[in-house]
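Cast an eye over my tokenised protein here and flag anything odd:

===
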Amino acid sequence: MSKSLFQKPIEIKISTVVAVSAILATADRIALDAALAEMTGGTADFFEDDLTVIDVAAVPAGGDPIDWGGLIALLKKYRLNPVAVRNAPPEMAADIAAHGLSLETASAKPREEEPAPKPVPVSTAAPAPVAVVAAQAQPPAAASHGTDVMIIDTPVRAGQRIYARGCDLVVTAVVNNGAEIIADGSIHVYNTLNGRALAGASGNAQARIFALNMSPELVSIAGVYSTFEDGFPQEYARSPTQIRLVGDRIDISSVNTANRA
């Protein structure tokens, strides 16, 4: 019998694709163009066609409507690839959809670490800036590579993405909410694991995730994932825990229990 008869027509698995956020403080394309030109310094490959989420929360209400076509063209000029809009009011929804962008709703759940800074007033006499915040950050300077392991001994902060390609990942500091750690092998966090942890990213179903204190937003083993919108299971939260793949489901167990005879 053909193997294809046992294959599912479609499977949905977690992806390691990461977007950047373009946080607008104005809809004025002239000001945005000037800010991006200054930011990139004329470097043509400063961005590399990064998927981009446009955040309009800081755009003043009651101003001129956003020219979505012009804004998309401007971002593409700087090799930013807009795919979604965040924090858009309902009246913008139809226009956003008409330009092929999706709507993204930011999480309303407050973070315990690193509260969002208060908005800084922008003088109307100067062009309003645009902030482009990279979600994919380079590994901290304190990272070191062994033959089969990458070691991170500084905190992994919100918006950072660490990828241990072809090896295990060891983190000795806290992994904050909004951070993402990825490894082709297993992940070991000798501290508190918040944020997202994706082990076996290249398809290794034997990979595992270990942490002394568990409170993740999302975990994944070989593309099979689980999220914890209602919080990590209380019986395992804030205690040494391992996460592994059993069949096609995520299994959570205490490290101490697993080691008993």
Observations:
- The longest strand covers residues 80-86.
